[in-house]
Write a structure and sequence with these properties.
The chain has 234 residues and is of the alpha/beta class. It has a single domain, classed as TIM Barrel (Alpha-Beta Barrel), CATH 3.20.20. The chain has helices at residues 42-48, 55-64, 85-94, 108-116, 134-138, 144-156, 174-183, 213-223; strands spanning 3-10, 19-24, 71-75, 98-103, 122-126, 160-167, 190-194, 230-233.
């Protein structure tokens, strides 16, 4: 498993739990606003190769956190592109930790297998945009049917979950939020994350902006017509 970084403590990324974050290397999308570009772009990954964290070091770290951490968040990049993800998660679970997986939903077959193996305790899936704008925002050609299948699998899985969207001025508006909220209609939780231009994959997004608190609350009201709970991170 290619691990590019460890955030040793988070009280926010796994709702209600004390956790750490493991960043996997590599992604099958090229979202311009991505704040983990060093784990996405091949040229950046190549520079990091000597700094990858060996699995042994990861598990040694987790051993020292038993009794202190509730869970482990596996994010990226995109974790589901790694063929050894199941084996990696299984080891974490055997150590007694809960596992939260962050995914872009492009590999529903991987999600389904992990769910069937009872290896995931919480899943957060990014819904980038409406179907019409998905390719433009992610920078790649998408099979939207796979995004839809992942949505359905997650909502039927019986585990804790959330869908989330990073909102960027110029890409998201009232209509776009309504389309996305309808797409995940009936979901337990939908999270709106305000875009910040501090660190991005595409320099063009350095000139992009997020939304005001008032605008985010307006988006929350729109989405709230379709999902059970809307959370806003500004």
């Amino acid at each position: 498993m290619l691990i590019g970084g460890i955030h040793t403590l988070t009280l926010l990324d796994y709702p209600g739990k004390v956790a750490c974050i493991l960043f996997t290397v590599g992604c099958n999308m090229r979202c311009g606003y991505c704040h983990n570009a060093e784990f996405v772009l091949p040229e950046s990954i190549k520079k990091l190769q000597g700094d990858f964290i060996p699995e042994e070091k990861v598990f040694n770290f987790l051993e020292t956190r038993k009794g202190f951490l509730d869970g482990v968040v596996i994010t990226g990049g995109e974790p589901t592109i790694h063929p050894d993800l199941e084996k990696f998660i299984r080891k974490i679970k055997e150590m007694g930790f809960l596992v939260k997986l962050d995914s872009n939903g492009t590999n529903p077959e991987v999600l389904e297998h992990l769910f069937l193996q009872n290896l995931i305790d919480y899943v957060a899936m990014d819904i980038k945009a409406s179907e019409a704008k998905y390719d433009a925002l992610t920078g790649v050609r998408n099979n939207f049917a796979k995004i839809q299948k992942s949505r359905d699998l997650i909502m039927k899985s019986g585990i804790a979950y959330e869908f989330r969207t990073t909102v960027v001025r110029g890409y998201h508006d009232d209509t776009e939020i309504e389309h996305i909220a309808k797409f995940c209609k009936g979901a337990h939780q939908y999270t709106l994350q305000n875009f910040r231009s501090v660190k991005v994959l595409d320099p063009v997004f350095k000139r992009k902006h997020g939304f005001t608190e008032k605008e985010l609350q307006h988006f929350k009201n729109i989405a709230g017509k379709y999902v059970k709970k809307v959370v806003v991170f500004n």
